[in-house]
From TrEMBL:
The keyword Secreted does not apply. The modification N6-(pyridoxal phosphate)lysine is found at residue 673. It is found in: Cytoplasm. The keyword Cytoplasm applies. This is Alpha-1,4 glucan phosphorylase. It comes from Xaviernesmea oryzae. It is an enzyme of class 2 (transferase). Phosphorylase is an important allosteric enzyme in carbohydrate metabolism. Enzymes from different sources differ in their regulatory mechanisms and in their natural substrates. However, all known phosphorylases share catalytic and structural properties. Allosteric enzyme that catalyzes the rate-limiting step in glycogen catabolism, the phosphorolytic cleavage of glycogen to produce glucose-1-phosphate, and plays a central role in maintaining cellular and organismal glucose homeostasis. Its main location: cytoplasm. Keywords: Allosteric enzyme, Carbohydrate metabolism, Cytoplasm, Glycosyltransferase, Pyridoxal phosphate, Transferase. Belongs to the glycogen phosphorylase family. It catalyses: [(1->4)-alpha-D-glucosyl](n) + phosphate = [(1->4)-alpha-D-glucosyl](n-1) + alpha-D-glucose 1-phosphate.
Length: 821
């Protein structure tokens, strides 16, 4: 924040009028003077940019007012550090929260411009991958909505994750080009630039007999520059900042080398710097990929912390008040290096002692854990970490010594416990445990669902929980109802508003009033008509993109999420093969028409996940073209899953697939989005499904399969998946068809390894849960045949999902962790 806010002579902007007439005038002004287009020749993308700029001006007024008020009040600021912010398109979000959506529609209409058409031209910001990034985006909107001063910090990826295409059913990764024509929402902040170092050496400087300082001399340096996007809350109560970092070299071109003819070498430093902000999650199967990923994490963490400390010193004399005025939330382990970096900045740059810096850090940081998968709790090889961040390696060792001495002396923990809490994993190649670093460097560690939080205490952080028993707490995830009901399903939103009034728009838990309409046949009919219209829209998208015709009267059974074995898309596909066999074998039965839709991306180096995508497409090709099925079953994998696609698929879902192996999904937020939009959930007792069952009632959700405790016991004692498969006629037949090449005529052994894994170990309990899953699916079929029963249940899902608003989640964070109220 600039010191200009201290100047009381700077007047605040007067609120702008937002009548259709005024908006129309401003649109023409922006079109003419900012875009340089005569309205007579303006293209749809020109009208979109002009409309965004008009909305942005109003957001900016609110943004500056929010910033001034925070400064003047001295309120605590929250800083949310995340490697992902899956914000999607912003225009509808912004104009809805500003309350100018209808006026802007009318203003554009005076020029013959349809806002719905131009809104589709806005690029989907490629700043995230899945649930973690979308959660961060929902949290940013909710922090503004509930009036918490906040900054989100991340990286401004030029290409993001990747654009997914299919080639003969295989995933192909292509660069995402969302920034090809710029981003009208953002503001570059050249004054907010910081130097970031890598490599080099550390020198010792003896200040006096008692004080020693350390001087890090990096071998490489890059510049991080901020780009700010304003995030406006509901009813424009507050506007916060999403600050994303771009990377630039100190010297953009080595002119001597260029003039000598080494044109590639002359740009080497420029390319190396810019690679930091090119791609989200570079493949880390190679040493070069691992190094780039660690560089990215340190790059954005260091820039963010330097920015936070600069802002604090503008307002306060020293850092003793930092924990009282600043709360830094680490979203997963990606920014965990921030713990060591804050200690470095406070000691090496600002002259505090190590003990002072460590005490400030522990009271300032809090950490959200998103996974129980050990491989997802990042670790880095010690030689890589030490070469790239030599000073931070020293600090990690110093922190580790402090923690281990405390654990040994004060808590009397044994050797095994000491080994597990250590920041250095000595079990094989020595590695730095970033999850442990985040844990010991934070005053609060939260899980994201009740089950996940309890499992954290017993599994990945069991000994750290013994050492610090008060730190772990739960904050069940939530979603913003503005994006995931009001904007993505406007017809349903209007129906609800007509039925129960406007109170739910400000407090999502007021949706409970809709319960009274669950069995009302007229309301059910209108609810069903809206669902069908949404399914028609999705069917049109599938036909346009893929040439596959879908029947909107069929049950739309949807599983959209990152492709991973624990999320068990494979279980869903195997059940589709089994159902295919049953439909062909028993044509006389009254089968429920069903469309199984999948979407999601597999990590480029995750072989089995990419093979599962190929299997889904191969199964789809066979089933969709078999006349014996009579159109009763279709399978579709929709490529390039992103927020905009989710906004079409979620409202169209009849059945929501939340079928992860119990004990492995931290929370899930897709489950909440589907249920809020009137889908029935079929799922395991995993993640937030447990709390969803409690909220919607166990009669309104279809739960199947092993519990987390049963999964853990089966793994510990050893189970016999071969016996399970051979004991299930439908499962064994489906697996035999897949393994023998029924769906892969061009390579009959393509999926044999995937199937062999189920016979040999079945770590994710696909075979173990198959019969229960297939049985639950046939029970869903029975429910579908009774419309009154089906819509009674799905309406109750919508009515009872208000507790899962991210507004509630953020209020809990603020009250119980950040103390930022």
């Amino acid at each position: 924040m600039s010191r200009q806010v201290e100047n009381e002579n700077v007047p605040a902007a007067e609120p702008r009028e937002s009548s259709p007439k005024i908006l129309a005038q401003e649109i023409i002004e922006r079109l003419t003077y900012r875009i340089g287009k005569d309205p007579k020749v303006a293209k749809p993308h020109d009208w979109l940019t002009a409309a965004i700029l008009v909305a942005r001006d109003r957001i900016t007024d609110n943004w500056m007012d929010s910033t001034r008020k925070t400064y003047e009040s001295g309120r605590k600021r929250v800083y949310y550090l995340s490697l992902e912010f899956l914000i999607g398109r912003l225009m509808r979000d912004a104009i809805t929260n500003l309350g100018i959506d209808e006026a802007l529609r009318e203003a554009l209409g005076t020029f013959g411009v349809d806002i719905d058409v131009i809104a589709q031209l806005e690029p989907d910001a490629a700043l995230g991958n899945g649930g973690l990034g979308r959660l961060a985006a929902c949290f940013m909107e909710s922090m503004a909505t509930v009036d918490i001063p906040a900054y989100g910090y991340g990286i401004r990826y030029v290409h993001g994750l990747f654009r997914q295409q299919m080639s003969d059913g295989w995933q192909v990764e292509l660069p995402e080009t969302w920034l090809a024509h710029g981003n009208p929402w953002e503001f570059e902040r050249r004054e907010s630039s910081y130097e970031i170092g890598f490599g080099g050496s550390v020198e010792t400087v003896n200040i006096d007999e008692e004080v020693t300082r350390y001087l890090w001399k990096p071998a490489e340096r890059v510049i991080a520059t901020a780009c700010d996007t304003p995030v406006v809350g509901w009813r424009a109560k507050r506007t916060n900042t999403l600050r994303l970092w771009t990377a630039h070299p100190i010297d953009p071109i080595l002119l001597d080398a260029f003039n000598a003819g080494d044109h590639i070498g002359a740009l080497r430093e420029s390319n190396k710097a810019e690679s930091l902000a090119r791609v989200l999650y570079p493949a880390d199967a190679t040493p070069a990929g691992q190094e780039l990923r660690l560089r990215q994490e340190y790059f954005f963490s260091s820039a963010s912390l330097q920015d936070i400390l600069r802002r604090h010193l503008q307002q306060y004399p020293d850092f003793t008040s930092l924990p009282d005025k600043v709360s830094i939330q680490l979203n997963d382990t990606h920014p965990a290096v921030s713990v060591a970096e804050l200690v470095r900045l406070l000691t090496d740059v600002h002259g505090l002692s190590f003990d002072q810096a460590w005490d400030i850090a522990r009271h300032t940081f809090s950490y959200t854990n998103h996974t129980l998968l050990p491989e997802a709790l990042e670790t880095w090889p010690v030689p890589l970490f030490e070469r790239l961040l030599p000073r931070h390696m020293q600090i990690v060792y110093a922190i580790n010594a402090k923690i281990m001495i405390e654990a040994r002396k004060e808590k009397r923990l044994g050797d095994e416990a000491i080994r597990t809490i250590s920041l250095i994993d000595e079990s094989g190649d020595r590695r730095v445990r970033m999850g442990n670093l985040a844990f010991v460097g934070s005053h609060s560690i939260n899980g994201v669902s009740a089950l996940h939080t309890e499992l954290m205490k017993d599994t990945v952080f069991a000994d750290l929980h013994r050492l610090y028993p008060q730190r772990i707490n739960n904050k069940t995830n939530g979603i913003t109802p503005r994006r995931w009901l009001m904007q993505c399903n406007p017809a349903l939103f209007s129906l609800i508003r007509e039925a129960i009034g406007d109170a739910f728009m400000d407090d999502a838990e007021e949706l409970k009033a809709l319960d009274a309409f669950a069995d009302d046949r007229e309301f059910q009919a209108r609810f069903a008509a809206i669902k069908r219209d949404n399914k028609v829209k999705l069917a049109q998208l599938v036909q346009n993109r893929m040439g596959v015709r879908l029947n909107p009267s069929a049950m739309f059974d949807i599983q959209i999420k990152r492709i991973h074995e624990y999320k068990r898309q494979l279980l869903n596909i195997i059940e589709a093969v089994s159902l295919y066999d049953q439909i062909r074998s028993h044509p006389e039965l009254d089968w429920v028409p069903r469309v199984k839709l999948f979407a999601g991306k597999a990590a480029p180096s995750y072989h089995n996940a990419k093979l599962i995508i190929k299997l889904a497409n191969d199964v789809a090709r066979v089933i969709n073209n078999d006349p014996a099925v009579r159109g009763l079953l279709k399978v579709v994998f929709v490529p390039n899953y992103n927020v905009s696609l989710a906004e079409i698929m979620v409202p169209a879902a009849d059945l929501s697939e939340q079928i992860s192996t119990a004990g492995m999904e931290a929370s899930g937020t897709g489950n909440m989005k589907f249920a809020l939009n009137g889908a029935l959930t079929i799922g395991t007792l995993d993640g937030a499904n447990v709390e969803m069952r409690d909220q919607v009632g166990e009669e309104n959700i279809k739960i199947f399969g092993m519990t987390a405790e049963e999964v853990s016991k089966a793994r510990a004692e050893g189970h016999n998946p071969r016996a399970i498969i051979e004991g299930s006629r439908e499962l064994s037949q489906a697996l035999q068809a897949i393994a023998s090449g029924v769906f892969s005529h061009d390579d009959r052994g393509r999926f044999s390894g995937l199937v062999d894994g189920l016979y040999s170990h079945d770590w994710f309990m696909v075979a173990a849960d198959f019969d229960a899953y297939a049985k639950a699916q046939r029970e869903v079929d029975a429910l579908w045949t009774d419309e009154a029963v089906w819509y009674g249940k799905t309406i109750r899902n919508t009515a009872r999902m208000g507790w899962f608003s991210s507004d509630r989640t953020i209020r809990q964070y603020s009250k119980e962790i950040w103390r930022a109220g």
